[in-house]
Amino acid sequence: MRFRPGAITASALTISFGFLIILGLLLPENLEDPSEIQEISSGFAGVMLQLVTITIGLTIILGIFNLLAVHLGRIIRRGDVHRQTHQASRVYSLVLLLSFGLVIATYLLDRDTNTILLEDVQFSLESALAGLLLFALVFGAYQMMRHRVTLTGILFVLTVLVVLLGALSIDSVREIRDLRDWLMEIPVSAGARGLLLGIALATLVTGMRVLIGIDRSYRE
Amino acid sequence: VDDVTVRVFSIIILMVTLVLVALPTRRKYWLRKIQAFEVVPSLSGLSIESSRPVHISLGSAGIGGSSTLVALVGAEFAYHMSERVAIGDMPPVITLSDPSAIPLGQDALRRAYYAHRRGQMFRPTSVHWYPSGTRSLAYAAAVTSLMGTDHMSANVLTGSYGPELALLLDTAKRHNIPSIAVSDQLEGQAVAYALADHRLIGEEAFVASSYLSDEPGAARKVLAIDVLRLLLIVALLVGFGMKLIEKG
Asked: Do residues A14 and A210 touch, judged by C-beta distance below 8 A?
């Protein structure tokens, strides 16, 4: 077995910091006579969590450098076999870099234009995309039935139809609306809770494995 | 339920999990087949043979928030997928919308190339950050165009997504790109179920390393989750029974 000081240090740091923070979070805070360990661990947990928040805030700078490096690289890079799409990719990257420069310039020189760019361009485009989501979902349901007709597929499409029809504010679909309410309250709620409980259990196990150094992601 | 009870239960649950995770076992466990993991070798083979990159996405999962562990397991999946395609000449593309996940994605790629002693092939710019905007729609728009221009061979979307996942999977369908998808958000999970070619459900995303790694004892994670699930079911049934007795 190879001795790797870096890996051992990383594991030791992760395990000790992890357990100290858990201790700080689990020990009660409002005791009348808190012991020294309680004070130290809860204080340490608070400071560490603040440090994490600050570090994560700084990663936005890393993101901006990544964005610029990736798109500059795409503009400079020589074309591959897909010449036409490579040209399109270059244009997109160029537009992105120009927009980036424009937003920075307007922020420094003219804040009103910057607000217009954000509210009238960015938000409108995102709203339009949100509108397209419905079509993508309906197309998905259609695709699901086209490829293979299964019991779950039929159930899925029927549920979609009931929920969509139940959303209409017409008196003639009252029964469908009742059915939709029942679906949302009982089966959907039960399924959602089941899924979330499964994810919570897996999160717990994964967290514990990272904490005690079984998962190797930070050790190599 | 008062604060002390919550803390006591938290400590008990943590202890049980610790025992389950750390318990040494020599038995070999057979894992049930999950189609999304079964297709990983063929998708990586397709990428190598066609010299087209695999697209791996972590969505809006990042370090520091509630999706920290989703980001970690997404990066683990990214590592296993990258490790398979690292022998080819086309590096995978990892996209994400949380900047705190950039080092995770880059590290997964770096480890994959170094595992094959091809460290010189590792490019940090194979990880693309696209700002998310409201509801991650800006990210979805950027990735949909990327799928078209970069001729992706497959999509592995394991992370945190809302309904915007529909845009990604719809574009993948139109470009005939096979997709594996899962999300820790309910809306994203529903979309993945309907639109993805191969979907993982809920906690299945967390056991990727158990299915894709050759390490001895990798299946222990699945075992721990299953035992915890069983204990939870028993606890729920006991609670239900006690309520019934109380009312009766």
From this structure: yes
Per-residue pLDDT of B186-240, as tens digits, reads 889 988 988 899 999 988 988 888 898 877 677 788 888 888 999 999 999 999 9
CB–CB contact A53 B64 (8 Å): yes
pTM confidence score: 0.86
Report ipTM (2 d.p.). 0.85
Chain length of chain A: 220
Whole-angstrom Cα distance, residue A215 to residue B245?
Answer: 44
CB B178 within 8 A of CB B43: yes
Distance from CA of B246 to the nearest CA of A (A): 23
8 A C-beta contact, residue B115 and residue B15: no
Write out residues 47-76 of B within 8 Å (CB-CB) of A: 62-64, 69-70, 72-73, 75-76
3-state secondary structure (DSSP) of residue B197: coil
Q: Please write down the long-range contacts of B215-218, taking CB distance under 8 Å and 24 or more positions apart.
A: B217/B25
Long-range contacts of A46-49 (CB under 8 A, 24+ apart): A48/A17, A48/A20, A48/A21, A49/A21
Per-residue pLDDT, A30: 60
- Closest-CA distance, B132 to chain A, in angstroms, reads 11
Q: Which residues of B touch A138 (CB under 8 A)?
A: none
